[in-house]
Design a protein that fits this description.
With about 220 residues, the protein is an alpha/beta fold. It contains 11 helices and 7 strands. The protein is globular and about 50 Å long.
Length: about 220
């Protein structure tokens, strides 16, 4: 069944939607444009995000890291019954002492910095947006804002007003509640924002649950 789910996700994310919104999209929103980050503004040189863990295992010679990191995140989410931070995950990683958690968090962030690059399809459009509209970034992610800013800076992505991250707010895009939190924080109505992202469930369906207009873009396959 897993391969069926992966195939379905590939079709929804990679084959449905536009390659990049047109400039007319900017005119269709009154005040704010919201962007997804990973696989929309930023792409990885990998087939899928969890391959970051495999690269850490191989390049840093940590036997079993790939499977242990995946299991640690599952355990952390079960324990929290909700969104988790990168620190929460490594606190559930076997064989790590409390004083090693920050070291392992840094290892993962450093690997993300190596494999992440600006999406060549989206970067010009994004820069046009920040020149003409208020732009915020919204992500379902276990990295906190300061970590994500580091990745964005490395990719040359600036000009946004704020970053909203699920692990800090405690709500997800998929449920629509993270978008609702964004609207409350900004003090704007749902009709004054448009969201742009690659994930069908999180960026398209989730945004529509919150009553926000949305543009679905295609995922670029990893190298």
């Amino acid at each position: 069944m897993n391969w069926i789910k992966r195939a379905g996700k590939y079709i929804l994310n990679s084959l449905i939607g536009c390659k990049c919104p047109s400039s007319e999209t900017i005119e269709k929103t009154n005040e704010y444009l919201s962007f997804d980050i990973f696989d929309t503004l930023i792409v990885r040189d990998l087939a899928e995000p969890k391959e970051v863990f495999r690269k850490i295992e191989q390049l840093q010679q940590i036997p079993g890291f790939y499977k242990k990191r995946i299991a640690a995140e599952q355990k952390a989410r079960e324990k929290a019954q909700g969104e988790v931070t990168i620190e929460d995950i490594y606190q559930c990683y076997p064989e790590i002492q409390p004083d090693q958690v920050s070291e392992y968090c840094r290892r993962e962030l450093d690997m993300e910095l190596q494999v992440c690059h600006p999406n060549p399809r989206m970067i010009s459009f994004y820069r046009e947006c920040v020149a003409r509209k208020k732009v915020v970034l919204v992500s379902d992610m276990y990295f906190q804002t300061n970590h994500i800013k580091e990745i964005l800076n490395r990719c040359g992505i600036y000009g946004y007003e704020r970053i909203f991250v699920s692990c800090e707010i405690g709500e997800t895009k998929r449920s629509g509640k993270l978008y609702e939190a964004v609207l409350r924080e900004l003090g704007v109505s749902k009709g004054n924002m448009m969201h742009i992202g690659n994930d069908f469930m999180s960026d398209y369906v989730g945004a529509r649950k919150a009553g926000i207009k949305t543009v679905k873009v295609r995922t670029i396959a990893g190298k």
